[in-house]
Amino acid sequence: MNFQSEKQLILNYYNDIGNSKIEEIPKVLSNYCSEDLLWRGFHPFNEIIGLDNLYLQFWVPFKKSFFNSQRRMDIFLAGYNKISGNEGVWVVSMGHLMSLFDNPWIGIKDTKKIAILRYCEFSKIQNGKITEVAMFFDIPHLMLQAGIKPFPSETGISLVQPGPLTHDGLMFNEQDPNVGNKTLEIIENMINDVKVWTSTSRASLIDELKKSWNDNMVWWGPTGIGSTYTIERYADQHAGPFRDSFKDRKFNGHLCRVSEGNYGGFFGWPNLTLTPIKKFMGIKTTPKSSEMRVIDMYRREGKKLTENWVFIDLLHFLKILGIDILKNLK
User: For the whole prediction, is pTM greater than 0.85?
Assistant: First the structure.
């Protein structure tokens, strides 16, 4: 399979939805999506079923708040998902939606300035229609641009995140399937290492990471955790503190896991269930089980991974723990 028709469908959809006025969006959705589309988004959107609901609950508020939007993609790929129950072709794009933030959105005050909204979107294609979407945003990063600091502290640092160092993530053309298969194999090996989670010291954690990661790795983390560079700093500024902050961790699996060329990624709904045992992002939480919805995108370099872009629904995670960041804005 070369996935070219599915890629073109998504590119046409992006173009039409981006250039449409609010009243034109229902027709665009109908042209490209199945009537019973399942759309998954970060809190406060969550699961939306059906085109009418998607139009009213997501696209109308979005279009009223953000003007002259540009989808500035850094990664674009397609692949066949083999995970049982969700098999099929998925197209993935990642980057930023750049707009003029002219009206409030989900309680976040407008700035009347450029806004950069980090996003990653997985779309399942069946019989020439989009049937499922996972569209994840880094909403806390938008809050920072609006002058709101949603979390007291970070172990890394929040930035406007660049695309791949090699600038080769936009795979509009057909790719060698063997290259993508190798990428997926390495991603799955890394996942299996994380599942075990046996590291109890900095030295053993670094040894674990070196099995799957190049020394100059970059972990582009979500706002609230932040980004970090090199294996040692990743161990100190995210992996180590993260593992120390939780207990009773359960891996729930993924809904989609695909790769093409040197890139690949996955999402779950949720990926993890875990219980905080100390402050997380500077916020005191109760020792209650909560869940993390996550998208990870990767770039492989040689035999190991070297860049990782991460989206975590931290607003949903905290809301389960009784902390409603969006409600507190009011």
Answer: yes
